[in-house]
Structure of ABC transporter:
Amino acid sequence: MKKILIISLLISLSCFSRADTLYLTSLEWPPYSGKKLINQGASVAVAKAAFASMGHELIVEFYPWSRAVKLASDDKKYAGYFPEYSYESDDFVFSEPMGKGPLGLVQQTGNPIKWNTISDLTQYKLGVVQDYINTAELDGLIASGRISAQAVVSDDKNVQKVAAGRIDAAVIDQNVLKYLLSNEANLRKLADKVEMNDRLLVNKDLHIAFENTQEGKKWRDIFNEGLKKIDVKAIMAKHL
């Protein structure tokens, strides 16, 4: 019996020694991520649950978006950043989807923009958030100058500009707009002035972007395995 207890203790200690703490960066992007949100937001709750299911602890540190991405690339403390849409990159590798985000356009209530294809948006002045990935086609038309777009540092700024008629519409996640209009004091008064356009750009998968290194790929694989052990949809639904 004593020998069995010793063996069990050694196994337990061995498992404990393999548990690691992982650091990722994120941004204030409620309801998906935010320092003061319940469980730090829907995407953070999913990420922490997935890593916990594999015996690891996740610590998320929050920065402005551009800095969050840069730190994930330059600072060895961090293995990556999230939530992010997948895109072509030499610097990062992407996890399996950890939820979805309905990406569309916020417009003035009673003054909807009309479009069927992305190229129809060339007739409008749009707002985007600096360094956000949208869709390849939309970002390409903006980069070429065919779509007139103004960049701001956060979604709330675009909502204010749409409400004031300074731009025709702005790219935004539908859940983000809903949260902002319900919870941000300076935007509640705009709830009857703006609305989502009926047509979505895309219902985009959300991912963790891990640094494209051996260490980053190791954590990506651990996270992907952890996703299989949790109910992603239920966790997301609880926080959205």
